[in-house]
Hints:
The chain is α/β, with parallel strands linked by helices. The protein has 15 helices and 20 strands. It has helices at residues 20-31, 77-83, 114-124, 129-147, 157-166, 168-177, 182-189, 193-207, 216-225, 239-251, 294-298, 315-323, 402-420, 439-446, 490-508, and strands at residues 10-16, 36-39, 51-54, 57-60, 91-93, 96-102, 106-111, 232-234, 255-257, 262-268, 271-277, 282-290, 324-326, 329-338, 349-352, 366-369, 383-392, 431-437, 455-457, 477-479.
Amino acid sequence: MANKLNSKLNWDAIIIGSGIGGLVTASQLAAKGAKVLVLEQYKIPGGSGGSFKRKGFTFDVGASMIFGFGEKGHTNLLTRALADIGEKCDTIPDPSQLEYHLPNKLNVIVDREYEKFISNLTSRFPHEEKGIRRFYGACWKVFNCLDSMPLLSIEDPSYLTKVFFKAPLSCLGLARWLPFNVGDLAKRFIKDPELLNFIDIECFCWSVMPADSTPMINAGMVFSDRHAGGINYPKGGVGVIAEKLVKGLERHGGQIRYQSKAKRIILEGEKAIGVELKDGEKIYAQTIVSNATRWDTFGGEGVQNPLIDLTKTPPKEKTWRKRYKPSPSFLSLHLGVKSSVIPSDSHCHHIILNDWNRMESEQGVVFVSIPTILDKSLAPEDNQIVHAFTPSSINEWQNLKAKDYIQKKKIAANNLITKIESIFPNLKDAITHIEIGTPKTHSRFLGRHQGSYGPIPTRKLPGLLPMPFNSTRIKNLFCVGDSCFPGQGLNAVAFSGFACAHKIGASLGINPWSLPD
């Protein structure tokens, strides 16, 4: 794809950033006939949902635990997004979501089969069997409501009316759960402190928040979809999802420009009309979509050059910043290791926590993925990939001299490897390749404020109700991604992309009248 285009071409939509949310928005609009341009600052698409190659290894940038590839219902958003543009990912089903390695020798395997998971959990907490079934049963009620209706923009009244007439009970059932967080429900059914701690880590593993701060709508999706559509790994690595979305985008007439960093969104009065690039080039469109974080778009503490001039920041965005803060970034390791160190019966995904009191602390929880258990083509023969990451604040890595920064990385990496050796002994001696990433790495290559992977509440909030939607108070400017409803995760940002494309499609008059099948 040529990197230089006619700057004066009037696009229907320019999308800043090629994360999964941005690519779903772009490809959905292109499939409806809109003229779409995606601007990506890096040389590959996908953002934290991308992949990179080193010495025969294909490493996933972010998590390898992927929801959204089911074949039935309406919550399989990655399957649907690709199908809408004539694409499909070949996937490998994972027999389990996670193996938890927790304090007091609490080891829980979340099996793909729901009853096996419940049996595993109740064998440790037999006195809480009734509460366990009632809690996870409530999650199924949320999921079934979501899965029975087409998931598009909830900002469009005409669309909501159609959905209500198609599935009135599901709409009413879903509305009931919007103000609730997981902790509200868990404590209603469960009393055992250790089991409530387990519900906390269940939430933390994908939302980076304990149960009291995790919206019930999100939990209903994740806790049930892992047994419905299941966890399915895309053959060739997670980056294949973004590559397929780009392929479908281009097939439908859309374009993507790499190494094209947006400097600012051009405003005419209170209306967005274009984007100025770092090199001074200006490109114009009817609508602008920011797949950058809300902070990188509108500014905030520590943001040097937001896309919108600070004097034009809508008051609503300032209110949002009081309610939410950036989640921690991660210290990450991408390891190539000798296959002999990984037992043949190992699960793909693991979480390690040695102290309940350190769950939200700096480098307290360790996430481990071994995607080569599912797809051996990702590594050279007789090698496996171990991708490990642990929450880390960018403040821990600021204001260091170059040599001190490098030394700190090595010490932190060694500490992380030692923790992983609690489940894979002698890992250190088996390493054949190592890549160490810090929050500064994530900030630099992903263009995300503080390297954060999304917002978390500054205080307890009523479920998803305070989360912003795609529209902004600046005319013709929309946002998409994990700073928008419904939040973090590839399936969640795919929903955000569907919703954003629907909202823009309504304004352009290109949406089909009928609801999706």
